[in-house]
Amino acid sequence: MYQHFSPDLSRRFLPHCETKTLYGSVCDLRTSKLPGSPGLSKSMLDLTTSSQRFIQRHDSFSSVPSSSSSRKNSQGSNRSLDTITLSGDERDLGRLNVKLFYNSSAEQIWITILQCRDISWPSSYGDTPTISIKGILTLSKPIHFKSSAKEGSNAIEFMETFVFAIKLQNLQAVRLAFKIQTQTPKKKTIGECSLSLRTLSTQEMDYSLEIIPPSKFSVCQAELELGTCFQAVNSRIQLQILEAQYLPSSSTPLALSFFVKVGMFSSGELIYKKKTRLLKASSGRVKWGETMIFPLIQTEKEIVFLIKLYSRSSVRRKHFVGQLWISEDSNNIEAVNQWKETVTNPEKVVIKWHKLNPS
Q: Contact 131/155 with Cβ under 8 angstroms?
C-alpha cells in the first residue's frame, strides 16, 4: 500500500496507519542550509598537525598476543607492514543532501532526498545520463524505495519525500543506505553513502553525505564505539574499545567471534600495536569495554591511529571486516571531530560511534 502526495501536503502529517509499507513522495520542499564544520584550536602537543604530512597508508600490521604491545627498538627493527598510497577509489565523488524527520504521533519516518551535487559518472555515459537514487532501510526485512530519474548535472534536484510507518525503536537500530544509479545509457551503481538512524528524533535534521565508490560489502556495515582521552599530565593517549554493532552474520549455525587491532603511528612509522580479546557476537553486537594506553614522548607529535575489526570463524580463519583512521585528515568526519575534541580538551573522555570503511 502506498500513497502519493501533492506539494501542498508537504508540511502535514499522515494519519496513523498500521501498515509498515506506506510511503509517498512530496515535491517542491524548501531548500535547507547545510550545517557548517566546527573550527579547530591548537592542542598542548600540537597533535593535530600530524595527519597533514601523513600521506602513506599502512593497510595491515602483524598480529600480537592479546593485551600485549610492542615498541620499535633503537636499531629500527622492521615491522610486518604493507604500505599503500591513497588509491583512485578514494577520489571525491560528490555529496548527497537528505533530510530526516520522525513523526511520533503517527510513528512515521520522513526521508527527503534533496539534491545530489558534484556527482561523477563514467565518461562513456556521455554528458547527461539519467540518474536516480535508491534508498534502503536495513531492517531484518529491508525496505527499498527509489527516486525518479533526473538528467545528470553538477547539481541534480530531487526534492522527493518517502514516508514509512515504522516504530522509532526499530529504526534506531538500523542504517539508511543510498545507492546513486545511472538509468541510461545503462543501469549501474556509481556511488553509495549511508548514515546511522541511532539519533533519529522528532527534530528535523539535514545531512550532507559523502558519496564513495560502490563496495562489494553489504549495505549494513559494522560500526564501532570508541572512547579517547589525551592524558596530558601522564603524557599518554587512552583509547577505549567499547562496542561493535551491525556485525556480519555467519553462513553457518555457529556465531562468529570478533576482535579489534589497533596500530599507533608517528610520522608514518608504527610505534605501538595492541588488540582486544576475541568475543562471540550476540544479535550482531559485541561488547569489549577494554582500555588501551599509548605512551607519548616529546618527539611523537604526528600521531595517527589505525583501528581494524576482524571476525574469526570456528575453523580459526580470520576475516577483515572494516577499518577506521583516527586523525585530523580521516575520511570519517566523526573520527576527525573526535580527534580534535580529544587533543583540545586534555583529560576529557570523548566517546563516539563510527561507521567502518571496507578499505
A: no
